[in-house]
């Protein structure tokens, strides 16, 4: 069951007021990011699966209702309504793993106003976290140029829930495996891990530690930088000579120091010993910029373990994500606050391509038919998930890989795209906005003239 009370107080006070005032006609809310963070050329939509599960299962338990009643804030009408609540609305959304840009809806909720309002907080919570994480991970994967990226970040992610859902989002974005066992179990992900320095330190001799670990886990990765990295590599070579055909160690891990120089020297030592098949895994404070720098200088690194920077999206830890009313009772709605003017009405996004490369997006009214691929799809009807709305993670990862490959090269790069990827507004949507703005200003002027 969804956590019904994981919401903001004002969602319930507004619903209480809506019910008292009889405001229950059909409403449309749009969930979008107003503008991209400074170091993002795109975002990768993620979190729809959890959003749909929430909408399907949201119920208020007797304990929830009893506690709400104890606050003395809510009417009996609201409490009775919550007791029998089931979401009956529709959802249109872009598939997870789809690149999106500022002002473009990731999802739109259409349903009775009280229902569509109630779910705001949780939807933002889920889609924000996973979109943030997937967008960061996509940059790391891009920087790695096809080399595997492994998630090492759970210990510094922001709590237990993030430690699971961030890993899911990273996998959608192309991360190959995770060290997080619970996330791997829940989502069916490949697991990968090495050893900590403490294991080496617990032994009196580094070679003895390598020998013992390789005996228990023959195809392991050995951590070589506890004392002296290159001496550690030499001890791996010594172990290989000692074990002969029984040596099956797959990789060595470099976790500190000058990773460019150390990887080059490590590769030379391994190759000279005939250990060309032993790979080099690099970790330790990595982000997309450092991964890109290492590979730009031809570092012979075969895979990357990335933790904190990717796990918390350290350079862009939050998105300007909003969930706004855009239509009620058949009329477009917007706000006129400076810097936060909305586009009214339900929408569709059309992505135009040329020779297999995305060239521009057009934000349009939901019922327009324009050139390009429409991004938003109907995924829920009357509160029930539609067939095909929840593909397996492997399908989502493949979709993300293909969709990202269709973006222009300058948009996929780590540096800010100049100019940014173009997102234009259709003539019909522009006209609808002007009409709503004019009507709103006329009503505001009338209310001022007749206080």
Automatic annotation (TrEMBL):
Residues 5-127 form the Nicotinate phosphoribosyltransferase N-terminal domain. Belongs to the NAPRTase family. One of its GO terms (molecular function) is nicotinate phosphoribosyltransferase activity. Catalyzes the first step in the biosynthesis of NAD from nicotinic acid, the ATP-dependent synthesis of beta-nicotinate D-ribonucleotide from nicotinate and 5-phospho-D-ribose 1-phosphate. Its EC number is 6.3.4.21. It holds the Pfam family NAPRTase_N. The lineage of its organism: Bacteria, Pseudomonadati, Myxococcota, Myxococcia, Myxococcales. One of its GO terms (cellular component) is cytosol. This is Nicotinate phosphoribosyltransferase.
